[in-house]
Amino acid sequence: MKVPWKWLNEYVDLDWTVEETCERLTLLGVKVENLTLEKLDLSGVVSALVEDVSPHPSRPHLKV
What we know:
This protein is mostly helical. It has a domain at 1-40. It is 27% helix and 0% strand. It has two helices and no strands. The chain has helices at residues 5-11, 18-27. The radius of gyration is 22 Å and the shape is rod-shaped. It starts with a helix and ends in a 37-residue tail after the last helix.
């Protein structure tokens, strides 16, 4: 079963690193078969805030 670290932390207050948690789970008898660390490349991401929306002057079904 895949368990995201963020999801696990919502249910259990952990003061350990990911690696320490995997070791402790193994000691408790829960087999950790694989640990995948994923990093997202957000270098090309642009965010914006839309402050106002109004109807297009010649196309009422569109908004600008």
